[in-house]
Fold:
Amino acid sequence: MIPQETLHLTALGQSHTGNRRTQNEDRFAIRSYHLEGGQNAALVIVADGIGGHQAGEIAAEYTVNTILRSIESSSMENPVGALETAVIEAGRAVSQAAAEHSERQGMGSTVALALVIEDRLYTTTVGDSRIYLLRKGRLRQVSTDHTWIQEAIEYDILTPEEAQGHPQAHVLRRHIGGDQLPEPDLRLRLKDGESDQDALRNQGTQLYDDDRLLLCTDGLTDMVPDLEIYNALATMPPEEALDHLVQRALKAGGNDNITIAIIALPKKIDVPPRVIHRRRWGRNTLLATGLLVILILAGVFFLWWLGLWL
Structure:
């Protein structure tokens, strides 16, 4: 992976401390790469530090930087494996950093990352930072929250309505750091009711012109409902949508740090049929003219060779 300055798609990010926190424990990164095979790649990472007293921001920083180093050293022959390895290495780095300093005990981080190679999407998450996909007029959360609440919903202990505002809403079941290495979630949920195996097979799915991806920490999703996220992504340019969603989260309370990243592929220019016909006609005319000139020159040479050309 060779770093490059220019992105082959639109990728924007923004992070805000919020209204009630004194420091921002979120981190994000957006990078562009050129692969040895000639493809372009973009990597977007969003991390939400946990632990407080500056340990959270350290954990998020370690998470982002370790993932970047791991990805940049990969050949990308196996993108899914590269993402999995990067997240596990981040878990190891955060755990080691916590063990070396008593004041960092218990620090950790969530992470959501998206890798786009040309127009192919690869994702992984740990924790409750999310990835959304806007496609064909529908907003879908393609990641899965690793929280006690999400498990309670999946096992029919709670309904989604009962989960709203539940006191254990932010109890994480997976995170970067701690005594155990993290378990990267590679499920990419593109349809209702699909199995875990189907979701895993969605890795490398093709992105289309009208698709929009949004990665975020819970500072957005706790404050802004999915319908408002949909409206912003569907009706606004990426930069405007980014600003709008951060401001909406702040106006709704801004109880936590807010970090958002938006990815959009460049739109292909549709060429009108008449222009296509005109271009084809021009190419065909040029080709015919060239063949005619070649035939004339060949005829002249043949006559000269026979001694009939004076």
User: Anything to note?
Assistant: The domain at 2-264 is CATH 3.60.40.10 (Phosphatase 2c; domain 1). DSSP finds nine helices and eleven strands in the chain. The chain has a mean pLDDT of 88. The first helix runs from residue 55 to 72.
